[in-house]
Structures are given as structure tokens and as C-alpha cells.
Amino acid sequence: MAAPKSLTFQLHQHWEVVEQLTRLSREFPTFELRVLEQVINQYKSKNAESNTVLTSLVNADILQPINRSSDYQLNTLVVDFVRGLTQEHELGLSAVLKARVDAIKDATSQVLEGLDVADNDLLRTGANRLSELVRKITQQLTQDKQAIFEIAELAKSADTSVPIERRYREVLEVYDQYVEPMNEMMDSGLGGSFYPLLEKAEEALDTAVDILSMRGSLYQQRLAMRQIAYQVKDLRYQGRVIAQQCADTLLPLREEARQHNQLSAVISKQLSQVRKKGLARGLNAEGLPMWKSSRVTKIQLGNEVRELMAEFLDFEPSSMPFPEEEEAPTSSMINWVDEELLREQLADSLPVANLMTWLRGNYQHLPDAELLRLYHELVRDPQWQSTLGASSSTTALNTVAVTYHPHEIKMLTGSTKTKDVENAN
């Protein structure tokens, strides 16, 4: 294996040649020297020589010679890398995807076992294994989706003169061998394995984060568990979306292929003969029932419908006068209490430590809303001093109980009561 730097540099220098060889590798697993020279001469840079380019690709291990042959093949790592960048993936196997999904169960059990025995190494190993499986499954789903899209596009753009069974043969095989098993696996019910296993893995990781928090583990360890749980949750959503997209892409083509099977081809041929030669000569009349029914079916309206229609014809709408608008009597607002008298009583009772308690004790017959309104107005009255208490208090009214910071009402500094002034006079 060549050095990674050398391989990467040669890919940069001769990318067009390697990309074309990767596309040809779908049809030709090995390349003769003559084919390599043709591709290199067509896609190399202007200043490079063919032999120099070929030697560089061989020395960088991009092209590998085959034993007991003069042919060459592309390095499998290079093929996967180029196809990944150009979005030209080969469709994977549903069995490989199923095996990776089943491996999530073992990794989840490893995480739970590490939590039970308080083994951080076992817990970390299971979580890392889950992360690696999630990464591989996500990569395979993305590659398989792109491969299915490409298969559908090739089937649609194929020559229409070719029978549809041959054009859509790969579509039918992919749907039966990959899409249907993947849909069964992605089922969120009892028959599926993808959704329940990922859900259990997510629950195990969330439990691990909570337990590590209670044990006082390092923040980095808890953050790693939480990030892996996010990856599992995203994979659970992306898996079902990709499966639905693949099914929506191939299902119309599959139905089209089924409609144009051999039976439909024979029927189309027979109909074309009828159009060209007519029914008598284009269709074999022997054995067909050449008769028709002479019975005439009549339909007439019943008497109930006729009576109803007659009532509709004679219908005359009756006019209904609207009542004239009348002015509603204006009612004055209810005065629950004489506020002037209330203020005089409050001024005589000063100082008051709790205004709400004083109102509750002296005006218990008033509704709760009126008591609250009076409380707020008396607090803002400028003829006395209102001070808000530091601690809260609760007072039960007629229907509700209010919790508040009570206001203490005092006389303004330098003022005297009204009755004292009158007595002095």
C-alpha cells in the first residue's frame, strides 16, 4: 500500500482519469493496457505524458496489477472514495443493514451491563460501539438511497424500444430484494426491528446520562453519552424517511412494469388488430356470445316525488317584519357603599396596620370584587400615608382568599385628625 500522502496527491493530479476509470469499473472489473491508454490520453492534462501518468497511478497503488495477467484493476479503497464523492454508489445488501441493526441490541446490552456493574470502561466501549454502528448504518442508508435514485433514473431514461420487462428488470429486483425487506425492518410495530432497537438504545443512553450525573462522573463522559443519544435519535428518524423515499421512487415504476406485463402486451396487440381490421376481422368471433339484450328498462318518478315537486312550484315565501329598534333603558351603576363615609371612618381609625383586614372587618357584606377595588383606591389616596409590608399575608374573603403584602395606613406627617381640629376650634 502506498503512502496516503502520495495517493492523495496523485488523485489530485489525475482526478479526471481516476473518475472516468471508476465509472468504467461498473462494466469492466479489470482494464487492459490498451483501454487505460485510451482513457489517459482522453482525460489527462495537456502537459503530462501517458506513460508518466500510468506509472504514477501504479506507483501510488491507485492501479493495481493483477497476478498472472497484464491487466490492471482499481484499488477498492479508491473506488469507494471516488464513488462516495461523486454520489455514484453501488446498492448495498439489505442483509448487511439488518446485521448492523441487530448488532445495536448487543451494544445496548453492553451499555446497560456497564451501568449495572459500574464499569466505566465497559460503558464507554458499548457507547463507542453504538456510535460506530450508527455512523455505518447512516452511511449505508445514504449510499443506498443515492443508488436507488440512480437505478430509477437509468430505468426512466432507457431506450423505449426495449421491452419494459428488460428496462425495469433491475427496478423489480431492487424492490423485492432491498426495499421490501427494509420496509419490514423499519416498521415501528411488532414486526419491525429498526425502530424498537434504536428506541431501546436511546433509552439506555439517557439512563446512562442520568446515572453518571448522580455518580458525579466527568462532564466529558456525560457529554459523549448525550451526543451518541442524539445520533441514535436522528438515525431513527432518517431511517424511516429514507425508506419512504426509496419506496416512493420505485413503487410507481414497479406498478408500471406490472401493468405492462405479457398479458397486457397481448391485449394491446389484439386491440391494434381490431383498430386496423375492424371488430369482425380483427377478433375471432368463434366462441363469443354474439347476442344482446332487447329488454328496455324504464324509470319514472314516484307519486311522492311529484307531490313534493308540485309543492316546490307553488311555494311562496312569507314576509316577516323585523321589530323596530328600541332604546334600552339605561341603568345606573350599583353603589355598594358610601365612599365618603368610608374614608371618614378610616381616618378616625388611623393608624391601621392592615387595610385589607380593616375592610374585611367593617364591610364584610360587600362583594369580593368591591372590597378589592376599595383596597386599591384607598392605598393610592393622598390624604394619608400608605406603607407596603415586607412579609406576605393571606385573608379569606367571601368566596376567595387573597395573598398579598399588606399596606399600613398612617396619617401624614404634621397633620391631625379632622375632629381634633374641629374640637380645637
TrEMBL record:
This is DUF3375 domain-containing protein.
